[in-house]
User: What shape does this take?
Amino acid sequence: MNATHLLIKPLQIAVAISWIMLGFTPVQAQPTAPPIPNQPPNPNPLEELIFLNPPPDQDAPEGTEASGDRNPCPEVLKPLTALVPVRVTQQDEQKLVSLQVETTQAHPTFWFYIPYQPEAIVSSTFLIQDRQGRTIYETEDNFVITDAPGIIRITLPPTEPPLNKDEWYEWGLGVKVSCDATLPPQRDSTEGWVKREDINSQLQTQLQNATPRKRAILYARNGFLFDALTALADMENKDLMQEDWSQLLRSVGSEELDAIATEPIVDCCNVEAEEEVSQ
Assistant: This one.
């Protein structure tokens, strides 16, 4: 037996032993991924009604103290509320509150929550003034809220002068209420500011070709809360409208609007003088 044959034999044995060892090497079991449950597709985030408050306007009016007499008679669970974003600033030791809303409309629609029963409302007034205090529009004595509690709309009539672009106007809603004929009526009110914004051609085209719900989404995402609410109110599917309405108000991030998010929209006003003329 030659030397080469003696070297091959041990080599073959070593290879065989290596294969045997590899064959018995334990293999770690890989974890099995749990089955994915059937889930509905995620909604398109662009379909959600989310209000994006625009940054503060450098020319915006300064905040004012919260106004209105929160009278105890009649008692209400929720206060008179304007459906408007609230800006809070601090000046010295005084907290200043300003209700500011922007619109694209020359004759915008304003939205308010009225907490009182119609029989408790003695009179009501809505007005718009420019920053110099000149009255642009004011309702007459025949402005009567006929259906409440609930959310009402008040639209600047198309027969009145339009709001100028890029100008701030002050608005106010005052309501006199009474629950005791032996006591004088008490006044409740809310005031704030509105500015008509100029929008770019791209947004104008999108709005022109959109359904009411799509318009509401576009308005809300561009910071126009009044316009978004008005677009929603025009939807034919009232069940979907109410769901979207509540979602939009809650997205503003205001405790006051959260509290009235599910309140119904009601008819606003009855012009008594016009009815008398028509009879």
About this structure: The longest strand covers residues 186-196. Residues 3-23 form the longest helix (21 residues). Residues 49-278 form a domain with the Immunoglobulin-like fold (CATH 2.60.40.1930).
